Amino acid sequence: MDGQLAIRLRGVIKRYGPITAVNGLDLDVPQGTCVGLLGPNGAGKSTTMRLLTAQAIADEGELEVLGFRLPAESKQARARCGVTPQLDNLDVTLTVEQNLRVFAHLYRIARADRQAAIERALQIANLVERRDSRVDKLSGGMRRRLLIARALVHRPQLLLLDEPTVGLDPQVRQELWALIDALRAEGTTILMSTHYIEEAQRLADTVLIMSHGSAVAAGSPSDLVAEHAGREAIEVYGAPAALAEAEAAAQAVGLRTRRTGTSISVLGVEGADGRAPEGERRPTNLEDVFVLLTGEEIS
Amino acid sequence: MREVINFSSYWRSATFSSTVEPTIYLLAFGFGFGSLVSRVGGYRYVEFVGTGTVATAVLFSSAFPAMFGTFVKYQFQRTYDAILAAPVDTEELVTAEALWVASRAGVYGCVPLIVALFFGLNPAWGMLTVPGIAFLSGFGWACFGIAVAGFAKSIENFSYVVSAVLTPLFLVAGTFFPLSQLPEWAQVLGNFNPLHHCVELVRHAAFGTDGWADLGRVAALVGYGLLTWRVAIYAMTRKLID
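Predict the joint structure of the above. Result:
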């Protein structure tokens, strides 16, 4: 399957009553890459994830996962996918090892290979010593690691990670990033949704920025930054009135701006010496693109 | 399929108190009423109630755990979300849950009968079919419970089902008094009560069969199981897949 697409979505639409959660989404995930779905809360990332496991059925559009068409062949696709949900759904009354064992059964790992698969997953999660602990005795970071390891017990070709580090402290996030990066290095295809820009920038080969249910931009993080925000930005600080003035002035001379809450960032200033305002120069980043494309206010 | 069942059995190794309550009913009615009425429908009252409460035990160990267990698992623990992300579909999930609950009902259903044996019920070979009868009725009630959980918007909705459906069916099943005491229209309605068929089958297993009529009762329980099974799958698919 080298060089083929692990996930291919075309014109996918999913409505919930009057709300259109996913609105004409196209998405390509090539084999062996890590694609980040980046977008604010409510952009349709989680719905997209549910569509990929046929836990939500699209109203329109074509979906293919690992060459299987959804929803008709979703069971074959799911057998080759691992899923880490946003909300922890480990069985808290079972031990670490039992949780893995249940999923080894659900993924129909042959009896002879089962124990080895569980040992491997315990190692991935770095929980070998805690194998007999009940899940409700684990820390938040351990539970997340177990949740990811549970999705890997059957060596899936494709890993779906829905907000893998949401609500975790920085140390735990780093730990999980190292884990995901190692998987990526081994060649596992990963689709990851996140609203943490740093996460997407560090882990994803390609980022798809979603807003209101559709893709507004796609590309490698550095290409997206170069294309939408240029190389450098200038930060202008001041009172709200002064900020509004600076914003208007920059826009009047054709520069793009974004608000940060405490300042105005004027983007793409590297070739605009005469027109650029006074302020602190800094390199542009993916957050600039994110805010620029998904809007400054949370709708 | 087998994997799923296997896995469910891990999961709830705890024994439930669903047998305690029918036993209390058995003892309370058996001794309380038993001292007032010595014979009912040709049997000693403790024998009558001892066989009847098998159906109560089945109901308590199937419909109730299925209702609450299913609701808790999808609403609070999100276990089903995790399972459906694996190559398992809703039909398999519902079937596995129902089979597991029904197996337990098959075991728990025998408890009142065993208690009654200690209080003078005569053993009979036919009693060996009781686990099977309990399993069959338990499957229908488990699917009923799962379906209710699938349709329920909140856990409070269950009290309507319990008061409006389960309690009347439980009282008018011939457990504590024979249906022949009731007006004719109620007797006709009784034939639509799966619990009544379960009660009768257990009684005939203990005291001698009723031939074709019993076969009809088994068919009724099979039909009830099939119907609730499909309804449960429909309800849970609606709930779990958007």
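Chain B touches chain A through 21 residues (CB under 8 Å).
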